[in-house]
Amino acid sequence: MEVILREDVEKLGSRGEVVKVAPGYARNFLLPKKLAVAATDSNRKIVEQERQAHLRKEAKLKGEAEDLSKLLSGVSVTIAQKAGENDQLFGSVTAKDVADALAQKNFTIDRRKIHLDEPIKQLGEYKVPVRLHKDVTAEVTVTVVKEE
Questions:
Q1: Hey, how many other C-beta atoms are within 10 angstroms of the C-beta on 148?
Q2: Which helix (H) or strand (E) covers residue 29, if one does?
Q3: Alpha-carbon span 9 to 15, nearest angstrom
Q4: In angstroms, rounded to a whole number, what is the distance separating the alpha carbons of residues 71 and 94?
Q5: Which of 14, 20, 22, 109 has the highest CB neighbour count under 10 A?
Q6: Within its chain, how far is the Cα of 132 from the centroid?
Q7: If you average pLDDT over residues 117-126, what whole number do you get?
Q8: Rounded distance, CA 3 to CA 20, Å?
Q9: 44 — phi, psi (to 5°)?
């Protein structure tokens, strides 16, 4: 069965693509969740108009993300944590802590956009990637110091 995707579906395709899928997959998953529509001529025209509007909106969002990336690239935040011997932290520094520190510098960044492979558990300086858009990533310098 051919369907037109209305959203990006992982391992299947991106928005606006016409893909062939099993009828059961389309009927039971894609169509009820409004991730796709049947590939008819009228639906093709409607989806093409939606795709054009989405591309314009996406370009605007990407431009804003690039501007924010330029501002964020020079930012460094300092987080004070309690630490024991050998610079080992009691607890850890998570994405939420980094988001809160950025909020104090008037950058409202969602904590889910801050990508820490694992929480920071040592004192020191770290480069933390912030994914502002699927194509735009900025790096913020996070310095973890011992709380007095």
A1: 5
A2: none
A3: 8
A4: 22
A5: 109
A6: 6
A7: 90
A8: 6
A9: -60, -45
- CA atoms in the 13 A half-sphere facing the CB of 103: 11
Tell me the three state secondary structure of residue 40. Answer: coil
Bridge partners of 9, per DSSP, are 13
- pTM of this prediction? 0.65
Per-residue pLDDT at 73: 83
C-alpha span between 114 and 96 (Å, rounded): 8
**Residue for token pair 């509007």:** 53
Per-residue pLDDT band for 58 (boundaries 50, 70, 90) equals confident
Helix (H, G, I), strand (E, B) or coil at 70: helix
Q: Which residue has the tokens 């391992």?
A: 11
Amino acid at residue number 27: R
3-state secondary structure of 28: helix
pLDDT at 46: 83
8 Å CB contact between 50 and 6? yes
- Alpha-carbon distance of 144 to 10, in angstroms, equals 36
> Exposure string (b/e) for 21-45, b if CB count within 10 Å is 16 or more?
beeeebeeebeeeebbbebeeebee
Query: Residue 100: what pLDDT?
Result: 92
**From residue 123, how far is each of 51, 102, 126 by CA, in Å?**
47, 18, 9
